[in-house]
Specification:
The strands form two sheets. Strands 7-6-5-8-9 form a five-stranded mixed beta sheet. The protein has a four-stranded antiparallel beta sheet with strand order 1-2-3-4, with no helix packed on it. The chain is of the alpha+beta class and 293 residues long. It contains eight helices and nine strands. The chain folds into two domains: 122 residues, no CATH class; 154 residues, Nucleotidyltransferase, domain 5 (2-Layer Sandwich). It is globular.
C-alpha cells in the first residue's frame, strides 16, 4: 500500500535526511475539534491549565451544567484525551483532572476545557518526534497529597526511547502516603514497572538495554530505592512497592538524582507556569530540546 502517511488520524512524517527521525502529529484532528467547538474566535493561550479556574469538586462553587452543556463538555474532553494519548503529552495532567468531573461537570469545568482547546490551537503543529539511540531513560515525580480530601497524591512519569517520549502517565495514587518521600517512592515503582516491560520487549527484539537510568528529584526516595534492607521508616509500605529495590540490586535500573528544574515528569503532576518549567518541558516532550542530564 506504499509508505505510511497516516494511521488512526495520526499524520506520519519521516525525515529521510536524518534516516531515523519520524514525527507523529494530529494537526487535522485539532483543526476539526477547534471548528466543532468554535474556539477560532478566541485568542490562543500558552498553557493548557487555567490556574484561575477551580475545578476541584470539593471547592468548585460554580453552577452545574445543563444536560446539553454537560454533553458538550464530555465530548470536548474525550476528543482531547485522544491527543493526550498519542501526540500531546503535556496535556495529560489537564485531561486527568477534567475527566474526574464527568459525572458532575460545572461551568468552571467547561471553561477549563475550552481553555485547554485554545492551547491546542496555539500548539496544533506540534507532534511527538521519534529518533535517537534505542536506549531507555525515565523520569518519575509525585505531587504529595494533591487530593487532600482523600489524602491521595498524584504520580507522573515519562519514559523516553532515545530523545522520544513513548510512555507517559498522570494519575492519582491508589494508596495514602504520609509524606513526600513515600509519594515519590510509589510513583517511582509505577515508572519501574513500565520500564521493565519496555526493557524486556526491546531485548526480545535484539536491543540490549543494560542498566536503565530513572531520574528522581527526591534524595530520600533515592536512598530508599538503593537501601538493600527495608528501613523502619518504610516497613509499613506495601511489599509490592519495594519491587524497585530488587530491580536496583539486580542492576536492571539505576535511580539517579535530577534537580527539580530538570524534572520533566513535573509537568504530569501539577500545573506549571509557562516560563517556569512548562515551556522547556513541553519542548523536551516534543523532541525539540534536550536537557542534557
Amino acid at each position: 500500500m506504499g509508505e505510511i502517511e497516516s494511521i488512526l488520524g495520526i499524520k506520519v512524517q519521516r525525515d529521510r535526511a536524518a534516516r531515523t527521525i519520524i514525527t507523529l502529529s494530529q494537526h487535522s484532528f485539532i483543526e476539526e475539534a477547534c471548528e466543532k467547538f468554535q474556539v477560532r474566535s478566541y485568542e490562543p493561550v500558552t498553557n493548557p491549565v487555567n490556574r484561575g479556574v477551580d475545578v476541584n469538586i470539593n471547592t468548585d462553587t460554580s453552577r452545574r451544567l445543563s444536560t446539553f452543556e454537560a454533553k458538550k463538555f464530555r465530548s470536548l474532553v474525550g476528543r482531547v484525551n485522544w491527543l493526550a494519548l498519542w501526540t500531546i503529552p503535556e496535556v495529560a495532567y489537564s485531561i486527568h483532572t477534567l475527566s474526574k468531573r464527568f459525572t458532575s461537570p460545572s461551568a468552571n469545568c467547561l471553561a477549563a476545557s475550552y481553555h485547554l482547546l485554545r492551547y491546542l490551537w496555539w500548539t496544533e503543529d506540534k507532534g511527538v518526534t521519534l529518533g535517537g539511540p534505542l536506549n531507555l531513560t525515565a523520569y518519575a515525580d509525585a505531587d504529595f497529597c494533591s487530593k487532600r480530601h482523600k489524602g491521595r497524591s498524584r504520580s507522573g512519569f515519562a519514559i523516553f526511547l532515545g530523545f522520544s517520549p513513548i510512555i507517559w502517565s498522570s494519575r492519582m495514587q491508589h494508596c495514602v502516603t504520609r509524606n513526600t518521600t513515600e509519594a515519590e517512592y510509589v510513583s517511582l515503582r509505577n515508572a519501574v514497572t513500565d520500564v521493565m516491560w519496555l526493557k524486556r520487549l526491546l531485548e526480545s527484539l535484539g536491543y540490549k538495554q543494560g542498566c536503565v537510568p530513572i531520574y528522581e528529584d527526591n534524595k530520600a526516595c533515592i536512598t530508599w530505592a538503593n537501601d538493600e534492607t527495608v528501613s523502619k521508616s518504610a516497613r509499613h509500605i506495601h511489599v509490592s512497592y519495594h519491587y524497585t529495590k530488587e530491580m536496583v540490586q539486580s542492576k536492571e535500573i539505576e535511580v539517579k538524582y535530577v534537580d527539580t528544574k530538570h524534572q520533566i515528569a513535573d509537568v504530569f503532576t501539577k500545573p506549571l507556569d509557562f516560563n517556569n518549567g512548562f515551556k522547556k518541558f513541553s519542548r523536551v516532550l516534543h523532541g525539540k530540546l534536550s536537557l542534557g542530564v
